[in-house]
Write a structure and sequence with these properties.
Layout (H helix, E strand, L loop, with lengths): L11 E11 L8 E12 L5 E7 L4 E9 L2 E4 L2 E5 L4 E10 L3 E12 L6 E7 L17 E7 L20 E9 L3 E4 L3 E5 L6 E6 L12 E4 L1 E7 L10 E7 L7 H17 L9 E6 L6 E2 L4 E5 L13 H16 L6 E3 L5 H19 L5 H17 L24 H17 L1 H14 L3 E3 L1 H12 L3 H10 L4 E8 L2 E8 L17 E2 L3 E3 L6 E2 L4 E2 L3 E5 L5 E3 L9 E3 L2 H9 L6 H17 L4 H9 L7 H17 L4 H22 L9 H16 L3 H16 L11 H12 L1 H13 L5 H9 L5 H11 L9 H9 L5 H20 L3 H12 L5 H11 L8 H31 L5
Helix pairs in contact: 1-2, 2-3, 3-5, 4-5, 4-10, 5-6, 6-7, 9-11, 10-11, 10-12, 12-13, 12-14, 13-14, 13-24, 14-15, 14-16, 15-16, 16-17, 16-18, 17-18, 18-20, 19-20, 20-22, 21-22, 22-24, 23-24
């Protein structure tokens, strides 16, 4: 057994499972009976008298082991709840090598915590509902699975580790008026002793990890398309399944899906290997989606889209999430990481290649601009903390892995992939990936296996310059000093707190410079020096008329320019790419927080962007200025001054973009309108507020439901709640309860967080923790309150006062959800006293499963507090000098 991880005994390895679930209760206790028969290869075993499997919240009734001609019944079972294992005691010593068969009869529960085999509540569309569908007074239920990372063991006793791959036969006894789905197509239907039931038997799966096994049961219908590409001479059926009444909202995902399957088959030089692709909308879902092989499950807002009623931002989300999960069908499912420490191999690559596919389908969306403002900036934020972790991180047991499904594995992983692809060239990079997939198909692989394939394809020693990016914590800031005709560069670890100790700053990264220089921004060209490979270096032959480092932000690092150079780059902004401008603003903000720069430099730079017309640049500007306003919100005069600054900044652009959507305008223009109206309204722009309230009244009264474009609901609802208080709060709460739009509940929760009084904040939090708000959405409302500096303290007060009575009992069944709730709810403070109060509160509690989230909260709050204290005087001085403070 490897000493750095807690894994099952290595002498027993599964090769095939037959899973049979029956006597499933559709209501009542939601229990089920099951039999799992596992073929096991026993090798290198001393005499053994037991077998150890993963099992959690399952009751084993009986078991027997067949070795050769001998069959032995288990004598008893020992459960280890903490390690989520069951030991099958056989009662005698056995000496055996070869194939054995273990058969276990057990009982499980279809839980309501979005993990394992679970139930989701929903309100069906009006019309026919299959009579057997379980229901209570208010909701109906569908059943589905979520096994990643370590929850197959909640559904069946199994060997639940990613490198213990097996094939699976699945059969489910279900009511005849419902539909069962699994990874593979239906093989046959068999009779049942239960009246009105039959048993659905599925084809055998390829060899795969337990976390990719999936099934679902419900009152489903579907829309279907066929791939244009032929696979073994036939097109593959692609379907989007929903509960009855929603299937038409799956058409946008469907249209993307069949094109992406064909595109990836071509790009990866390996045909999609299963006979079907099913996408299933699940009404309660802990993540965005899950890549189960052949049966991909999604949160409804990540797969359903209604052209008439959905906010257009969800179009982008659906397209991307569909592509991300399809990427996993190869990268993760066909070839799986050897152990959870290399999760990034799955998630980092799928994130990058998901955007790669969307860029292919929608070149007009400026996908790489989106990537830079979303993925790269999110990765910077997460990795700037002292309590970050390397992309490849030691994982002792499977129970630790949920906390590394984070921005480091996904966003930093994908950012580093983009950096490498840019360096090697896209064609060479994808050839290396295709070679890697072919070499390790239906098996497991490591980071070094990927580097080897890429090294062979490129003729470069990839490991030599990429290893530190994967195995070391953090990233650098490159500080620039100017002299005539040359620049000096120094790399050091970037920490949000700005205080990296010598022992924390020993890594010397390979930093691709992307240095462009010339007599002007429009004529600049690539400099011959392509990388910084030591702590400090001097680059000669640089034209100080214009130079720029990290063109298009392809390198994963911050740049810290001298203040005068930052000003000049701001003046040259119209000659810079969208990615360049995003990087310029994002770096200026981050350097101000960390103390490498200062806030006046950021404010002066951003002031120039009043005439900006690109949504993605505005998104970065609004995020960073919003963060600065949040951090200084408790200092009254600065808060007022920054509000005036924001209002002056957004007014010209908001007035120019207007309220009306034009069918001929691009997707990004609509997104710009939504963002600017929200920002202008919340900053107090009179015309925007008046128009928002006029439209709100027409909409809420029912006089004109078309008064608010679907993409403007969040902006208008948020402005109304802020301006009108309780009356608008009640109206939008009612909208939440009665909306039939897929995205409506999320939008209402985001908007209700704009309340302005402690009383309404507490009322909203109580509403969030009622059964009216699904567990998957409880963080959404809390996040919006945390972003609202006026009532932010109420979030911590509510958590502290209701931890034992509401929060822990409600969320602790799924620690992913609990960690997300705490991190989003508490990381916006900028007061050391609050950080200390939070740390003291959780000190004596069992924090396993959310301890890393608490570290992030503590580090973030203290870094913000340090920044606020350091820059308070210079921000006040700048605001006074520029007449934002009288």
């Amino acid at each position: 057994m490897a000493s750095d991880r807690d894994i099952l005994p290595s002498w027993a390895k599964p090769s095939h499972y037959t899973v049979s679930l029956y006597d499933i209760e559709f209501g009542g206790k939601f229990s089920y009976q099951g039999t799992v028969t596992i073929k096991i290869d026993i090798k290198n075993a001393e005499e053994f008298d037991n077998l150890v499997l993963n099992s959690y919240q399952i009751k084993v009734h009986s078991a027997q082991l067949q070795t050769g001609d001998a069959t032995r019944k288990a004598k008893d079972f020992a459960y280890d709840e903490k390690r989520q294992r069951v030991t099958v005691h056989l009662g005698e010593k056995i000496k055996y090598t070869g194939e054995a068969t273990l058969k276990i009869n057990f009982e499980g529960t279809i839980n309501n915590i979005m993990a394992g085999f679970y139930r989701s509540k929903y309100k069906p569309k009006e019309g026919y509902v299959a009579p057997s569908v379980p229901k209570d007074d208010e909701f109906h239920y569908m059943y589905s699975t979520q096994f990643e990372s370590c929850d197959a063991r909640r559904a069946i006793p199994c060997f639940d580790e990613p490198n213990l791959k097996s094939s699976f036969d699945v059969e489910l006894e279900i009511p005849q008026d419902q539909t069962a789905l699994s990874n593979m197509p239906v093989k046959e239907l068999k009779g049942s002793k239960r009246e009105g039931f039959h048993t659905v038997v599925f084809e055998r799966t390829p060899v795969m990890s337990t976390y990719l096994l999936a099934w679902a049961i419900g009152d489903f219908e579907y829309v279907e398309a066929l791939t244009k590409r032929k696979y073994n001479g036939k097109s593959i059926p692609v379907r989007v399944y929903t509960t009855r009444g929603l299937k038409e909202q799956g058409r946008f995902a469907l249209e993307n899906c069949h094109q992406v399957v064909d595109y990836f088959s071509e790009v990866f030089q390996f045909d999609y290997p299963l006979p079907k692709v099913d996408l299933l909308a699940v009404h309660e879902f802990s993540h965005g989606a899950m890549e189960n092989w052949g049966l991909i499950t999604y949160r409804t807002t990540a797969v359903l889209f209604d052209e008439k009623t959905s906010a257009d931002s969800y179009r982008n989300r659906v397209a991307y999430v569909v592509a991300h999960e399809l990427a996993h069908q190869w990268f993760g499912n066909l070839v799986t990481m050897d152990w959870w420490s290399e999760l990034w191999l799955n998630e980092g690559f799928a994130t990058w290649v998901g955007w790669f596919a969307i860029d292919h389908l929608y070149p007009e969306w400026n996908v790489w601009g989106q990537f830079v403002t979303d993925s790269v900036q999110s990765a910077f934020t997460a990795d700037a903390l002292r309590f970050s972790h390397p992309i490849e991180v030691p994982v002792y047991d499977g129970l630790e892995v949920d906390q590394i499904f984070d921005h480091i594995s996904y966003m930093k992983g994908s950012s580093v992939i983009r950096m490498l692809s840019s360096h090697l060239g896209e064609k060479v990079f994808l050839q290396g990936v295709a070679d890697y997939l072919k070499a390790h198909q239906y098996s497991n692989a490591t980071t070094n296996d990927l580097w080897s394939a890429l090294s062979k394809a490129s003729g470069q020693d990839v490991n030599s310059f990429m290893d530190l990016w994967i195995r070391k914590i953090g990233f650098p800031v490159v500080t620039v000093a100017e002299e005539p005709g040359q620049i000096s560069l120094r790399q050091q670890r970037f920490l949000l707190s700005g205080d990296a100790k010598p022992e924390e700053d020993q890594t010397v990264w390979w930093v691709p410079l992307g240095l462009h220089t010339g007599s002007s921004a429009s004529t600049a060209s690539l400099h011959k020096t392509n990388a910084l490979t030591q702590k400090e270096d001097t680059i000669r032959d640089v034209d100080d008329s214009f130079y720029q480092i990290n063109k298009n932000l392809t390198g994963f690092y911050r740049t810290n320019y001298p203040p005068e150079r930052l000003r000049k780059l701001g003046e040259a902004r119209h000659h810079l790419s969208v990615q360049d401008k995003i990087g310029l603003v994002g770096d200026a903000y981050a350097n101000a927080v960390a103390g490498y720069g200062a806030t006046p430099g950021l404010l002066a730079l951003v002031e120039r962007f009043q005439d900006e017309s690109d949504y993605l640049v505005w998104s970065q500007v609004l995020t960073n200025i919003g963060n600065a306003r949040s951090i200084f919100s408790s200092i009254e005069d600065i808060s007022v001054g920054l509000k005036k600054y924001s209002l002056k900044l957004v007014t010209p652009a908001a007035e120019k973009v207007g309220w009306e959507f034009n069918k001929s305008e691009g997707f990004l223009i609509g997104q710009l309108r939504s963002a600017l109206i929200l920002s202008a309204g919340l900053s107090g722009h009179n015309g925007t507020v008046e128009e928002a309230l006029r439209r709100f009244d027409l909409y809420i009264s029912g006089e004109d439901k078309s008064a608010i474009n679907p993409s403007l609901r969040r902006a208008v609802f948020s402005i109304a709640v802020k301006e009108r208080g309780e009356s608008a709060f009640k109206a939008i709460q009612n909208e939440y309860l009665n909306t039939t739009t897929i995205d409506g509940k999320e939008i209402c929760l985001q908007s209700l967080g704009r309340v302005q009084t402690p009383e309404l904040a507490q009322e909203f939090l109580s509403f969030i923790f009622s059964d009216k708000v699904a567990m998957q959405d409880k963080h959404s409302g809390t996040f919006s309150l945390a972003n609202n500096s006026t009532v932010r303290p109420e979030v911590w007060k509510f958590i502290r006062d209701n931890w034992d009575s509401k929060i822990h009992p409600t969320l602790s069944g799924n620690l992913v959800v609990l960690e997300r709730f705490l991190r989003f709810g508490l990381n916006k403070f900028a007061d050391v006293a609050v950080a200390d109060d939070i740390a003291a509160f959780f000190k004596d509690k069992d924090n396993r499963g959310y301890n890393k989230g608490l570290d992030v909260i503590d580090d973030t709050i203290k870094s913000h507090a340090k920044y606020r204290s350091r820059d308070e005087a210079v921000v006040r001085e700048w605001l006074k000098a520029n007449e934002y403070i009288q």
